[in-house]
Amino acid sequence: MTTTAVTSAGIASEAPRSDFGRVLAQRERRFAAALLAPAFLALLATTTFPLLFLVYTSAFRMDLAMPFTNGFVGYENYQVLLSDERFWTSLLVSLVYTGSTVALQVIIGLALALLVMDLKRGQGWFRVIAILPVVLSPAVVGMIWRTFMLAPEFGIVDFLAINAGLGSKNWLGDPTLAMVSVIAIHTWQWTPFAFMVLLASLASLPEDIYEAARLDRASAWQRFRRITLPLLRPAIVMVIIMRTMVALTAFAAIFTVTAGGPGTATEILNLYAYRKSFTELSIGYGSALAVALLVVTIIISGILFAIRRAK
Amino acid sequence: MTAKRLRIIALLAISTVFLLAWAFPIVWSVMNSLKTDSDVLAYPPKLVFTPTWEAYRDVLFGSGSILPNLLSSVIISVGTTVVTMLMAVPAAYALARLRFRGKKFAGFYVLATQMLPPVGIIIPYFLVLRNIGWIDTYQGIILIYLSFSLPFAIWLLVSYFEDIPFEMEEAAYLDGASRLKTLWRIIIPQVRGGIAVTVVFVFLNAWNEFLFAVVLSGNTVRPVTVAMFNFVSVEQTLWAKLAAVSVLAMLPVVVLGVVAQKHIVKGLTVGAVKGGGRR
Predict the structure, then answer these.
(1) ipTM of the predicted structure?
(2) Where do transmembrane segments lie in this chain (chain B) (predicted)?
């Protein structure tokens, strides 16, 4: 009884003060709790619990191939990690992959959105075709590119390269070209996303500001720099945040194309954690790598959200 | 006048290049799926050829048919969609319409769960599922798919629930209807469209998932995205068949994507307004 009194006093400013109102408010809380319970229990079980368990396993040596060496090791995995060259390389690959794919998506997507806004006809074509790459499974996309697009000679990209006089290239076998390829594939698949979001926000910008600017004889560049860009800023930052989070944890489109190779040339941190855990079966160290990835994700999103808040 | 005409021609040229770049790999896969292996491997690549259904016949009805894998994908996707919606609709309604303490925190929690890298979820989950013998089972895979489908569905649905006028509920309460009845009879019918869009996206994400599937699948449960690998091996690639399987794997999501075309931007950016986001 006392708790009821306290809680209803706490929200007294919102809820009606009568007993009837109090009963209603309490019923509403109970109803809300009942509606939320299944979803929140499922989320606790499938996200919060794994996170805690992950941190726990990262303090163990847990080798599925050699179970007799298993045991508690404290923070040893993290010590190993700090002096693990493959970790630092994969972190660098992650940052290059994320930075370049996100930049390319935003620049190409924005340029194309501005261009399509000027089209009097044919916008519908863009709206339909831009959807295609976005709805596909990155695994299927990776498979198609690896074979029909990038295979030596009869792959279309290689065919075009030969005809352009560049000669046949080993697109996925050469470390640099492999990195370029996986970046290009990710950019191919997700630029339509940036394009669609930015086109939608462009279409919602008020027309009269542009009229006024035109009357003031502002050049096209000035209109873009002084009006369009500042008005689009929230949408651009949102696209950057969403795409960064995804690129950091990209998996299928690299796994199916190069599996991180040749060597570790395209092995992003996410893929390293996977390979360590499920190919080399060192679950404990793999967990530490996954925790490191989470920390990197939190730091980067913290920076991005700070940028978003800053005006 | 000529400058303007040049500008229009340049615009059209650039647009065409991009439309082609996005459509081509898909169209090319469809064409290759209708070729024989020797036509696929022809140099220069053949744009004109005699189409054949042979590759489709082989992958669907030949030995090593992928029909069981397509069925696997359907069961996983439908199962995930049903369980997700049963949990997400009530939760989204509560978050959008009801007053209770900790509501802000609850909303934030749903968003924050999306920050977890999937690889960080699958490592511990693999250990747990192995212990209880749920590797290579539908319940195991559907359960872990909730980790990404639930937050997404909840936030997408909240945005639709928030659009309904409050008066509808109040009128129902005044008529003496219970809360549950009001939700079921008055509110749910109002958000039918939003529910349909959410179903499309949850299905799509489940159909396309790969990392969890590749770790948890086995001989019983093996969705088509994983089974695709059977057609590429170190010794040889079965080109036309691989193309056919890719097309079959793309077909449902392309159809759904085009159907849900108008809602796709909302579906892709859900939660972003409030702060998070995923794949």
Answers:
(1) 0.91
(2) 70-96, 108-128, 140-161, 182-204, 238-260
Asked if B25 contacts A149 with a C-beta cutoff of 8 angstroms, the reply is yes
Rama region for A9: left / alpha / beta (φ>0; ψ in -120 to 50; rest) = alpha
Alpha helices for B175-261 (secondary structure H): 179-182, 188-190, 192-208, 211-216, 224-227, 239-259
8 A C-beta contact, residue A249 and residue B121: no
Three-state secondary structure call for residue A218: coil
Enumerate the domain spans of chain B. Answer: 67-269
Calpha distance B273→B277 (Å, rounded): 9
Residues of chain B contacting A234 with CB distance shorter than 8 Å = none
Q: Is A39 in contact with B88 (Cβ distance < 8 A)?
A: yes
CA–CA gap between residue B223 and residue B231 (Å, rounded): 14
So what's the architecture of B67-269 in CATH? Orthogonal Bundle (1.10)
Per the listing, tokens 């409050």 go with: B166
Site of tokens 């299928």: A252
Task: Tell me phi and psi for residue B44, to 5 degrees.
Answer: -65, 155
Instruction: Classify residue A163 by burial, with Cβ atoms within 10 Å: 0-12, 13-18, 19+.
Output: exposed
Please tell us whether the domain made up of A78-309 is placed in CATH 1.10.3720.10: yes
Token pair for A236: 């651009």
Structure tokens at A92: 């660098």
Tens digits of per-residue pLDDT, A169-195?
899 999 999 999 999 999 999 999 999
**CA neighbor of B111 nearest in space, from A138, A305, A250:** A305
Question: For position A299, what pLDDT does the model report?
Answer: 95
Size of interface A-B (CB pairs under 8 A): 285
Q: Which residue has the tokens 């959105």?
A: A113
Portion 137-196 of B in contact with A at CB < 8 A: 143-144, 146-147, 150-151, 154, 179-180
8 Å CB contact of A116 and B147: no
- Other beta carbons within 10 Å of A112: 21
Band (pLDDT 50/70/90 cuts) for residue A95 is: very high
Side chain identity at residue B3, one-letter code: A
Three-state DSSP class for residue A147:
helix
Please give the Cα distance from B47 to A154 (Å, whole number): 12
Residue B251 near residue B243 (C-beta atoms within 8 A): no
Domain with CATH 1.10.3720.10 in chain A: 78-309
Query: What are the distances in angstroms from CA A247 to CA A200, A280, B166, B253?
Result: 23, 24, 40, 21
Distance between CA atoms of B192 and B161, rounded to whole angstroms?
Answer: 10
Judged against a pLDDT cut of 80, whether residue B176 lies above it is answered with no
